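Lab notebook, bench 4. Still working through the backlog of constructs that have no structural model yet. Next entry is a single chain of 556 residues. Request: give me the structure tokens for it.
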Amino acid sequence: MKVYEAIAQSLIAEGVTDFFGLMGDGNMWLWGAICRDPKIRGYSARHESMAVSMADGYARTTGKVGVAMVTCGPGLTQCATSLIAAYRGKTPVVLIAGEIMQGAKNSTQTMDQRRFVEASSARFHSITSIDNMAEEIAEAFYAARVHRCPVVLNLPMDLQEDEFDWDYDYRPSTLFLPPRMETPSPELLAPVIEKLIAAERPVIIGGRGAIMSGAKDEIVKLADRVGALLATSLQGKGLFAGHPWDVGISGAFASEPTEKLLAEADFVLGVGAELGYYTTEGGLIFPSAEVARIDIKPMPEAIGVIPGLYVQGDARRAVAAINEALEARQIRKEGLRTPATREVLDAPAHKFDAPKDGLDPRALGGNLGAALPKGVLVTCGAGHFFSWVGMYMPLPPGAEIQYSYNFGAVGQGLGVAIGTGVGNPGRQHVVIEGDGSMMFNLQELETVVREKLQMVLVVWNDGGYGAEVHKLVAKGFNEKLAQWESPNFVALAKAFGGDGVLLSDTSEIGAAVAEGLRKGGLFLIDARVSPSTPTEPYAKVYFGHESHAPLLRPVA
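Model written out:
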């Protein structure tokens, strides 16, 4: 048996059924070997960075380790931004990278791959010998699973074609995973319980961890018991949609009513939400509140902008234990659920003037939300535009949304979207990306078509880098420096083998989404929005305007 065949066996034993990559000398034998198994599907990206982003998106929505393969040297260096984004998103990814033989005379593609990988915030594991190979591969997958981070598995090219003279025995990392701290002890939960009992104006914020653990019903039960308002982080968007005391997203993307109400909170409990800088708006959104967090991680990575209590545990089980303790003590309170709060929540929304230089982004967000089918998967890129999605696009029941903003890097959305689509076959998929981001990795539209993936792709097109445009205006510079005449994205989609439509009015988005879902494959919607209209966070931070964003209501 060749070494590359043994590595293929190891990957299959780790549960790999799909992987993403770009073939080269450093990985082609392994690629060929693993694809001999008809149950394994390899997806060829057109750029190495997008292969890692695809693995990132795949891991987020499947619960599996995302796997990518690239070649040596420049094949690896292309991946830096996507590796850091996966690290910031706490995504378990294993990137298998070839490496030129040490001392090779043809040294064109040689480099210190360890230093590069570690500078990119990933862990570096290398196969050092045939004798150690099985253990070293398992350690790489173990690190990705346990630490929820990207790991680069370094694969020396000279080792791959060696022969095994004995039977290859591989024990996958799943055999060695330690049990997680699922339900915290009563002693650890006691301070949180006492704070909830004492609080007069409590708020509970659910995040991605709450969604992943299925904690919604227990959180709602707890909030109903103590009179708490319900909010989410950006990644938890829509978790409590439809609940009468849901106040939407907390932080930089909060609505006007949410800002008013959270400012009154005296205790905030984050469940599966780290309550970081943006969710707390730099610590300013609930200035009078004490804070506690429940998270599966053993401890927070830093003190953070708002220190407070911290309890390790599974979100659903921990909140269920709190509910049981409060039931035993017959606790039930009004909290923030007062007529005054209801008056704030039910106040008429501010009326905005429609822009005259493009589609109204507020109306586009609202109409797009109304057009989404129940249970849809939404993937959203990063840029100025994604504030409109967060603040103005409601989600239908059963919808799931994934954002690619973890490193604040534009250009990641399309790769993440391909990975989420691959990981959810048969699920209707709508992707939202900015025009500037699209131009980073336009080549991956060909990947969508070639791999026969269904994707309705809305290009939120303001003809420039919107964030830079509004910052330039705020500082008195020429905004044209960050603007351009938009390419015809629909024509580009058609050139790659897809289809699409150019919107002339926001009211058309519903019919366009329906047509794209009916046709299947790649369907691109070019939505040319007003380039002069800043989002609420930008209007507040750079122009000193008060936020008038409405409280989103769920789509019926």
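Notes after review: DSSP finds 23 helices and 18 strands in the chain. The domain at 186-346 is CATH 3.40.50.1220 (Rossmann fold). Flag for follow-up if needed.
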